[in-house]
Amino acid sequence: MTMTPEDATRFASNLDELVGAVEEILLGKNRVIRLAFTALLSEGHLLLEDVPGTGKTSLARAMAQSVAGSSNRVQFTPDLLPGDITGVSVYDQRSGAFEFHPGPVFANIVLADEINRASPKTQSALLEVMEEGQVTVDGQTHVVARPFMVIATQNPVEQAGTYRLPEAQLDRFLMRTSIGYPDHASTIRILEGTDQRAHDHRVEPRLDAEQIVEMAAVARTVYVDPTINDYVSRLVDATRSATEVRLGVSVRGALSLVRAAKTHAAGRGRHYVVPDDVKALAEPVLAHRLILDPEAEFDGVTASNMIAQVLIETPPPSARQAG
After folding, report:
1. Most buried among 27, 121, 222, 244, using CB within 10 Å?
2. Closest CA relative to residue 158, chosen from 58, 81, 52, 54
3. Rounded mean pLDDT of 314-321?
């Protein structure tokens, strides 16, 4: 089954409505909001590297409200245990059996605040449910809600006392981006609304959770021409052969880029992927998967620079080929 033009038009309309609803809360951040919903509808997870106070919690809460879903926030600390996230089994004396008490991960959108402050064992517990969509406690498997998305945050400034996410675990995130500070006009509008607390702002549901699951299924049916797959393959090959890169993009990264490009195309009202979809998402999907050579890092080379360079040096297929 392949997406029809009518399906694409309806998909784009629904996505625009969701993005517009959340933008009422997160002013002036259309691109970040669209990336977040692209991750959600691609059944992936989002890593935000940002300083405190830029609206990460507001983004997660507003997204959940817009799809009539649930959201939970977990503040990661060094003493946080895996059971504090996934849940625990508690013995019930009346029934004489263990009863499972679900943790905060059982929500549609989970904000893992400052994920790098928790121990590697606790980080792994969250990343396991991200990958498999289920939690196993005392031999019993419990499936998390659908849709399910983790928005994890890291503070790029304060690194003391943190546990850096290993590259294999960074690879589990579909995208990495940042919200950043609002522009001048948006800041003025935010200041004009200081008579209301952030928690007082609510987003009216535009769709329900079941409709989001259906949209994700429809996004998977977007047509991808073989020339697009060839283009993505050449892009990831270029990251692996670059002298400034010690470890290039994995196969999972290539799959993630194609999956996200499908959603991006549908969000633009197209039932097929074009090279511009790949280009638009290459940096947020691929950059965090690179390990740079230490000497290159010392010279000021960044992963984002490398992806930009690879895009310049790797010719896309022509419009006639890709269409």
Report:
1. 222
2. 52
3. 76
Q: What is the DSSP string of 32-49?
A: HHHHHHHHHHTT--EEEE
User: For residue 144, which amino acid is it?
Assistant: V
Q: pLDDT by residue (tens digit) across 255-276?
A: 999 999 999 999 999 999 999 9
Structure tokens at 278: 């790949």
- Order the strands of the 149-154 sheet from edge to edge: 71-75, 109-113, 149-154, 46-49, 175-177
Give me the architecture of the 1-219 domain, per CATH.
3-Layer(aba) Sandwich (3.40)
Residue reference for tokens 């880029």: 257
189 Cβ contact partners less than 8 Å away, ≥ 6 residues apart: 27
**Cα–Cα distance, 222 to 273 (Å, whole number):** 7
CA distance 262 to 259: 5
- Evaluate if residue 321 carries a pLDDT over 60: no
CATH number of 222-323: 1.10.8.80
Written as six digits, the tokens of 224 are: 């991808």
pLDDT at 98: 85
Domain boundaries, the chain: 1-219, 222-323
Could you give the 3-state DSSP secondary structure of residue 135?
strand
- Angle (CA) 151-166-113 rounded to 5° is 25
Average pLDDT over residues 104-124: 91
pLDDT of 72 strictly over 80: yes
pLDDT at 187 over 90: no
> pTM for the whole thing?
0.91
Number of other residues whose CB lies within 10 A of the CB of residue 188: 11
